Amino acid sequence: MNFEELKLVFGGAVGAGKSTAIHQISEINPVVTDAVASDADTRARKARTTVAMDYGEVRFGDDQILRLYGMPGQRRFKYMWSVLGADALGFVILIDNSRRWPVSDLSTMLDLVTEVHPVAPLVIGITHCDISSQPEMDQYYEFLSERNRFHPLLAVDVRMKDDVLLLLDTLLACIQNPESGSEHANHARESSA
Amino acid sequence: MTTDKKDVVMNSTAFTKLLNSIANVEGALVVTSDGFVVAAKCSPNVEERRLAAMTSSSIALGSQLADGLGQGRCEHLILENGKGLFVCRNIDEGNILAVFAGPDTKIGNLVSACRQCADELKPLFDERLAG
Predict the structure, then answer these.
(1) What does pTM read for this prediction?
(2) Which of A35, A50, A149, A185 has the fewest CB atoms below 10 angstroms from its CB?
(3) Do the chains contact at B54 and A32, CB–CB below 8 Å?
(4) Is the complex ipTM higher than 0.90?
């Protein structure tokens, strides 16, 4: 595997924490393409919103770089998934637990990823658990199991750099060893039981 | 709110002039910087909502590119394509004007017309906000 070409994509609904996560760990000044939010739903969550992509980089060693792309969260920017997602090596899906239907958000995100990259390694981060503790992790596991999907699932605070790095480490493990994703998922599930 | 702005655009001479002053103009639209249609006059085969979102993405990337090059503010974005031209530019912080035309259109004319229209729409939007 050539780490120099390692392109990772962050997806999730508006306000899930994609831009924040990339900002936390990027070692370059991130590329930000945000604009003033003009719709009430988005404005209720934040003043500005990503309209094209976020971009950041994390270095591994001397010449290895992880390229981090953040997708816009709104459905009208869905075309960015085919622009940026098709040749990604892995995906970080962030789900805002305080939104109205977070399990449904996960379903939407899985569909988007599958559409551009049917066998993509991916890791799921559940955010905003400090605001809403429901649904619980077991409900996500149950949903994934029903879909016959087994991905690492972590409750994270993307304002914390270590939490974002944990997501990346987990994703890299999945990329290097595709079986580790389901093993990690099973392990995490046993730990939460 | 957006409906009011739509009226401002559709009733303006600036927008009408943009559509009519240059041959081969196929459509024009004003979109919010976060990708919603404010007002549009396009042929039925154009997906206006999709074009609005793509316009906002494109100009946001253009602005970042200009910034990365140290070339200041992105004034306008030009796409010269096999079968036509697309030009967009910021009207103000929250709105973008886009226009597209057929293959025989002169780039300079389209850019100039787009600039003039944006410059004329800006005070109308300012007035609306002030009012």
Answers:
(1) 0.86
(2) A149
(3) no
(4) no
| Nearest Cα residue to B61 out of B77, B37, B81, B85 | B77
Spell A57-85 as b/e; 16+ CB within 10 A means b. Answer: bbeeeeeebbbbbbbbbbebbeebbeebb
Cα separations (Å) of A14 from A5, A69, B68?
28, 15, 26
Put simply, whether A129 touches B (Cβ < 8 Å) is no
User: What does the block give as tokens for A112?
Assistant: 């988007």
Please, what's the b/e burial string for A138-157 (b: 16 or more CB within 10 A of its CB; e: otherwise)? eebbebbeeeebbbbbbbbb
Residue matched to tokens 């729409």: B121
CB contacts of A52 in chain B (<8 Å) are 56-58, 60-61
CB-based contact (8 Å) between A49 and chain B? yes
Is B35–A42 a contact, with Cβ atoms under 8 angstroms apart?
no
Instruction: Please name the member of B50, B52, B57 whose beta carbon is closest to the beta carbon of A52.
Output: B57
Contact B53 A34 (CB under 8 A): no
Both structure tokens of B103: 């293959």
C-beta atoms of B34 and A39 within 8 A: yes
Beta carbons of A150 and A183 less than 8 angstroms apart = no
Residue to mutate among A51, A74, A75, A83, with most B CBs inside 10 A, is A51
Asked whether the beta carbons of residue A34 and residue B60 sit closer than 8 angstroms, the reply is yes
> Using alpha carbons only, what angle is made at residue A152 by residues A147 and A156, rounded to the nearest 5 degrees?
120
User: What length does chain A have?
Assistant: 193
Nearest Cα of chain A lies from the Cα of B82 at a distance, in angstroms, of 20
